[in-house]
């Protein structure tokens, strides 16, 4: 049980703006104070259209994925993100919240198809996803796309050496992998 609780705590550290609760062995619920308290840190939304989160879609476009699976990803993403307010504002103003979406594709190398400031609507997202082509390359370098996704953070430089010194503050980050291979 202690191992499970410690893993839960570590997982929740990635979502600092949200209030975190831990249930101990006696089923007592305790609130964990936020480690990073700022004026920009807002409570988590309870519905999708008020979500204030960064979502990075990491899509395998190697030959293993195939064109039909890429189209399925586009359809699924359009259905899911129709529930969210998609925007590119990095801050909350007048309680206007939005979900920022970035899209990266990868095979042997990763490519940023759209960063967090590029996609401002569901149609923009659909256009980006429908523009991804299947590569002839069979390799799918997941590490490459993860590393490339870290450069999207506002506190990171585009230099890969800066990635180890990044801080991802204020806005929770979700990475969704769509993979057909891992080599």
Automatic annotation (TrEMBL):
PROSITE patterns: VWFA. Keywords: Signal. SUPFAM superfamilies: vWA-like. Residues 54-142 form the VWFA domain. The keyword Signal applies. InterPro entries: VWF_A, vWFA_dom_sf. Residues 1-20 form the signal peptide. This is VWFA domain-containing protein. It comes from Acrobeloides nanus.
């Amino acid at each position: 049980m202690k191992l499970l609780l410690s893993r839960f705590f570590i997982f929740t550290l990635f979502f600092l703006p949200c209030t975190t609760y831990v249930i101990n062995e006696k089923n007592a619920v305790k609130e964990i104070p936020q480690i990073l308290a700022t004026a920009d840190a807002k409570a988590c939304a309870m519905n999708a259209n008020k979500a204030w989160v960064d979502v990075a879609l990491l899509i395998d476009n190697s030959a293993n994925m195939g064109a039909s699976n890429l189209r399925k990803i586009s359809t699924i993403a359009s259905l899911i993100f129709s529930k969210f307010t998609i925007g590119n504002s990095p801050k909350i103003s007048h309680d206007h919240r939005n979900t920022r979406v970035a899209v990266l594709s990868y095979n042997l190398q990763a490519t940023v198809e759209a960063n967090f400031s590029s996609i401002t609507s569901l149609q923009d997202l659909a256009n980006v996803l429908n523009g991804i082509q299947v590569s002839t390359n069979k390799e799918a370098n997941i590490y490459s796309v993860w590393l490339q996704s870290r450069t999207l953070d506002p506190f990171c430089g585009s230099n890969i050496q800066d990635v180890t010194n990044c801080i991802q503050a204020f806005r929770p980050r979700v990475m969704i992998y769509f993979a057909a291979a891992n080599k």
